[in-house]
Every structure is written in structure tokens, then in C-alpha cells.
Design brief:
alpha+beta; single chain; globular
């Protein structure tokens, strides 16, 4: 769990990032969760774009994605979601994000 200071710092780090993931009309599936898990293991900070055709609100999707991927919701703004999950793989390589 991240605190508010860490959340604010992560928001600033996510600002210049491009969305690496898009969620549209389809429901939450195992394949979606596996893809998200794979991306979070190589990119600790992930920006997701929720398309207008999505059946759920971005806030609902953010909560579900965070629970299924064992990640923290950093921010939900409009149709953008930012998730963070610490990666042991990146920590061993010395490339992990160092939270304040």
C-alpha cells in the first residue's frame, strides 16, 4: 500500500508516460489480467486508456484491475488510469522505482 506522498510522486512520474494499455468493450477476462500482470512486471508504473465503449466506469475498472493484478491505483482522471506495482524482477536488476 502506498501513502499519499508516494501517490503524489508517482502521479508526477506518470504524467509524461504514454498509455501502454487500452480497455474497451470487452469484459474483464483472464487474458486481460495476464497481459496486465506481464506489463506490470516490466513497467512498474502503467498508464491505461479506457475507451468510451467500455461498459464500466474508469473508477470501477481501476479498482477491479488493481485487485486482480495486486497493484495500487495511483490516479483515475477522466478515462485514464494509472497503476503501480513494485517489481522484484526490476529491483534485482537495479531498475526499480525508488519511492520517497
Amino acid at each position: 500500500m502506498i501513502n499519499s506522498k508516494q501517490r503524489a510522486w508517482l502521479r508526477s512520474q506518470a504524467n509524461p508516460l504514454d498509455s501502454l494499455f487500452q480497455i474497451g468493450k470487452g469484459e474483464m477476462s483472464d487474458q486481460l489480467v495476464r497481459s496486465l500482470d506481464e506489463i506490470l512486471s516490466t513497467h512498474e508504473l502503467l498508464k491505461i486508456n479506457v475507451l468510451k465503449t467500455a461498459e464500466q466506469t474508469p473508477a470501477e475498472l481501476a479498482r477491479q484491475l488493481a485487485e486482480s493484478a495486486d497493484a495500487d491505483v495511483v490516479q483515475v482522471i477522466g478515462r485514464r488510469i494509472v497503476l503501480y506495482r513494485h517489481s522484484e524482477k526490476l529491483a534485482k536488476a537495479g531498475k526499480a522505482i525508488q519511492l520517497p
